[in-house]
Write a structure and sequence with these properties.
With 441 residues, the protein is an alpha+beta fold. It contains twelve helices and 14 strands. The chain folds into two domains: 179 residues, no CATH class; 193 residues, no CATH class. The chain has a seven-stranded antiparallel sheet with strand order 2-6-7-1-5-4-3. It is globular, with a radius of gyration of 26 Å. 26% of the residues are buried.
């Protein structure tokens, strides 16, 4: 599944009608959530039936204007939140279970296979539901006709490759996201290169070869302008009264600046992840997750108010998410390991040396190894990846009767390998040994 995004260009009247569609989708979702709260044993099918009831109700004439499949899509959103809450309760998740909340400021409306139509040149989109938005131009650097359609297939059949269209309102305008059914695959030249990655704050990451990537700290660089805009917003806000046009103008400027920082983080994370995947055949990194119980939780780390802003600015989660995506696209093996003792252990002799956050150099008293703190941790991370591979292959490959969850029970997760990858791993090892014996001139 690919997501192609294009900016919608139209008139202020069309933008207002899109806002009405977004508010209607929010109404459908919140009504489905209330129906679930008031009735026991509600299923997803019951919420789908409720959408048709709302469309026929004369008290809510605006509900009928939204496309029927779009109403079902927002019922699915409500059910997704309900199902996630049930899953967290079933697993006994500590803390808050994520009880579904009512939406107050929704920013998107989603259409399925109807309610919209693309022009022949794929440069315009027409919304055909009851809101009568009409035709809007699509501005994008990517063309929607890039995918290969069946020979001689009509335009209606080709459009079925676009499974959904999502309209999103952002600070700088309205966008249409097209979800395209496409199995993306890229060619990758295997050379036997393997690396371990340690994510940090001083440097964005350090690999097991000692290479580093700078942490650009986009939020810190924009902080001065953000503070100035925030002060202007606060001065123009009047409590308990309708806000002026100048207030909304400054508020939008502040939102655009935050959006710029968000896009800078996303762009850097995507480019860094792609560069790592293209230059390596096996990648091991420390999992820094938001939800796993045994992982180095980002939500716990940001409780340190001295580091919270820097941790959020580093965007570790976005980087690891793109790393996993590009690895599957290029056929590269990626392993996420636990962070325990990766900083304490010596990568040369295994001796334990406790360090404070201010200690940036690893000096082993036993073997005399002197390395940068993050470089030493990256080497330990790569070693943990090799150990996990050995445990996985010994427990599953060639033994179909063994339990494939054995390794997961030991606390290591996110290792996606097939039985046929055993030959690839041995080949990678041979390439690595060959490269070590015959270094380039």
């Amino acid at each position: 599944m690919l997501v192609i995004e294009a900016k919608l260009k139209g008139t202020q009247v069309q933008y207002g009608k899109l806002d009405e569609a977004i508010r209607t989708g929010q109404f459908i979702r919140n009504t489905c959530l209330r129906y679930w709260e008031d009735n026991k044993g509600v299923t997803r099918n019951d919420l789908q039936k409720l959408c048709a009831v709302l469309a026929k109700n004369k008290e809510f004439p605006w509900a009928k204007k939204l496309n029927s499949q779009a109403r079902q899509a927002h019922a699915d959103r409500a059910w997704s939140a309900i199902q996630r809450f049930y899953e967290n309760c079933r697993l006994g998740k500590s803390g808050k279970k994520g009880y579904p909340k009512y939406k107050k400021f929704s920013r998107s409306v989603e259409y399925k296979n109807s309610g919209w139509k693309l022009s022949a040149d794929r440069r315009q989109i027409t919304f055909t539901d009851g809101f009568e938005v009409g035709t809007m131009d699509l501005w994008s650097s990517r063309d929607l006709v890039w995918y290969v359609a069946p020979t001689g297939a009509p335009a209606s059949l080709r459009e079925k490759q676009i499974s959904r269209v999502r309209v999103i309102r952002r600070a700088d305008g309205y966008y249409a996201q097209f979800l395209v059914d496409w199995d993306r695959r890229e060619e990758h030249e295997f050379q036997g290169k393997m690396t371990g990655i340690d994510l940090g704050l001083k440097e964005f990451y350090t690999d097991s070869d000692g290479n580093t990537v700078d942490n650009l700290r986009y939020l810190r660089k924009s902080e001065r302008r953000l503070k100035r805009l925030q002060r202007r917003v606060s001065k123009k806000h009047v409590q308990g009264k309708k806000q002026s046009n100048r207030y909304h103008k400054v508020r939008k400027a502040l939102a655009k600046q935050h959006l710029k920082v968000s896009r800078q983080r996303e762009d850097k994370a995507r480019k860094d992840a792609l560069a790592v995947v293209k230059s390596n055949d096996l990648i091991v990194y420390v999992r820094r997750s938001r939800c796993r119980r045994l992982d180095l939780k980002i939500r716990n780390m940001v409780k340190n108010h001295h580091l919270a802003k820097s941790i959020s600015d580093a965007s570790w989660y976005q980087f690891t998410r793109w790393l996993q995506y590009f690895a599957k696209v290029h056929g590269v093996i990626v392993i996420a390991v636990q962070p325990h003792n990766t900083t304490v252990d010596c990568s040369c002799c295994g001796a334990k040396l406790k360090k404070t956050l201010s200690t940036r150099t690893h000096k082993c008293n036993k073997c005399g190894t002197v390395l940068d703190r993050d470089h030493n941790a990256a080497k330990n991370i790569l070693a943990k990846g090799f150990k996990l591979l050995a445990e996985y292959l010994n427990s599953t490959v060639g033994h179909t009767e063994s339990d494939p969850k054995r390794v997961k029970a030991q606390g290591e997760t996110d290792l996606w390998l097939k039985n046929g990858d055993a030959l690839a791993l041995s080949w990678l090892n041979e390439l690595r040994i060959s490269a070590a014996e015959n270094p380039p001139l």
